[in-house]
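#onboarding

Welcome to the new folks! Below is a worked example of what a typical request in this channel looks like: someone posts a single protein sequence, and someone else replies with the predicted structure as tokens. Don't worry about understanding the tokens yet, we'll cover that in week two.

Example request:
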Amino acid sequence: MFRSRLSLLNILVAIVGVALLIFTVRRAGGWGSIVEGVATVGWWFIVIVLLGAFRMVCRTRAWMICAGGAPLRFRDAFAAWIAGDALGNLTPLGVLASEPTKILMVRTRISTVTSIVSVTVENAFYMVSVLMVLLTGTWIFMQHADVPPALEQISEFILIVVAIAAIAGVWAVRARPAVLSRFAPMLAKLAGRTEAPADAMREIESQIYAVPQWPIGRLLRVASWEVAFHIAAVAEVWVVLLQLVPDVTLAEVFLLESAGRFVTVAFKFVPYRLGIDEAGSGAVADVLGFPPAVGVTLALVRRLRIIVLNAFGLIPLAGSRQLRKPA
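Example response:
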């Protein structure tokens, strides 16, 4: 029953995404201008794919540092990361599919507690870095003279979300709420177990809350890989836009990347953000004074990059025995 409902949801989301994509492309001048823009990128697409792969390497390295001294090899971690990313993009489950996939694929290499903690902590570092990117992008965007009311409201919403996230983070570090152990019985029922792994839950919470006590060097190493991830993302946008708008500025590149990052995080449940990426990128490009087709082309090129990399991610996913073994 769950799978049939999930399939129906996939179909509905795909239909809405295709409709939004067609509507956006028509407003941007039709498929002719979009195809021309994609063709203009040409062989630079290889560089874009390599930058996308490097971004995956960055987060994999950050994850390995979060795992501490656990015997997690890069090739195993990277295979798990690209497989999880592929599954997260292909289904409306998003992170509910991608992160458990990582955990399952490395469970013979490191303990389940260590894998859960490391994945959770790395995602926390990533989200903090994303919030910083969104905050900076919003500040730059608000300096623009002609911001449409709809985009201005989105900008204000982002500022509110960042403020709430900051307050919640400070509170969690100080209060250390026993969230996992409190909901252990419910999680056990969902997992089909008769007993709740309360000790494991408490250990996971203890290790997560111990992150602020990590050596400063370890914290900086994780943060540096997350920063490198975003630098590569900006470089990716810059490479595409240089082929379409040679006089593009770094601020404009950063704004388009931050808009894309917001769409990625907010609409992760939509497979490949079909139609949404194009609509958001086209709207921001229009505000910046570019033809909307530039933003739509950027979104399509980046989606093609994701599809290529996800095709590689399906290889370890198809060959993984860990996903077939009972937990």
